Amino acid sequence: MFEQSVVVENFFLRDVKALQESSRCILEDAPDQKPVTVSVELLQTLLAAEIVCVLRYTMISVSQDALRNDWLGTEFQAQANDERRHMMMIAKRIEELGGTPNFNPPGVVSGVAALGRNDGSFAIRVAQNLTAERCVIEHYRHLVAFFDQHDPETSRILRDILQDEEDHSNDMQDLLIVAV
User: Fold this and answer.
1) Average pLDDT over the chain, rounded to an integer
2) What is the pTM assigned to this prediction?
3) Using one digit for the tens of pLDDT, what is the confidence trace for 72-90?
């Protein structure tokens, strides 16, 4: 049903892990910075993750697999819409804290374009998405713990987004069962 070939690298996961590492470095330097500066920098990493998700899920929603199977396109477009909503929630919070949302994060978007080569099977892409979604969930949980102590409003926003991300992970797990 779906084309079969091998994907060399999970660019999505690479980007998410890089953002997690960036957050870790920000938190290590936190004692030397103003709390609001740390908050904005951490939120920028989440904004970048959401941008990557919007692009990835939108590209999958119009991929050859999705064009052949309307329900796939619909599912991935719905997820892209959720990620876009998350992106805007985070951007709004960054502005409320006095920062400027960075909608052009360096080095992150390049791997998303690799999807355009259509060099992997749908099942492999879904498995990659599932792995990356789980990593995003871990990223959110880690930052929720930080914001619980420093900024309850941001923590509330991130908890709402985290619930959606957990739902996305469950959806990916279901899609993986269908795709195999």
Assistant:
1) 82
2) 0.83
3) 889 999 999 999 999 999 9
Section 119-133 average pLDDT: 78
- Which tens digits make up the pLDDT trace of 25-62? 776 766 667 788 889 999 999 999 899 889 888 988 88
Assess contact for 48 and 108: CB atoms under 8 A: yes
Report the 3 state secondary structure along 72-118: HHHHHHHHHHHHHHHHHHHHHHHHHCCCCCCCCCCCCHHHHHHHHHC
What is the spatial distance between Cα 50 and Cα 114, in angstroms, rounded to a whole number? 17
Structure tokens at 62: 């119009």
Q: How far apart are CA 84 and CA 55, in angstroms?
A: 9
In the numeric block, which tokens belong to residue 12? 């999505």
77 vs 38: CA distance, rounded Å: 32
Provide the Cα torsion 24, 30, 36, 37; round to 10°: -80
CATH among 3.90.105.10, 1.20.1260.10, 3.40.30.10, 1.20.1740.10 for 11-179: 1.20.1260.10
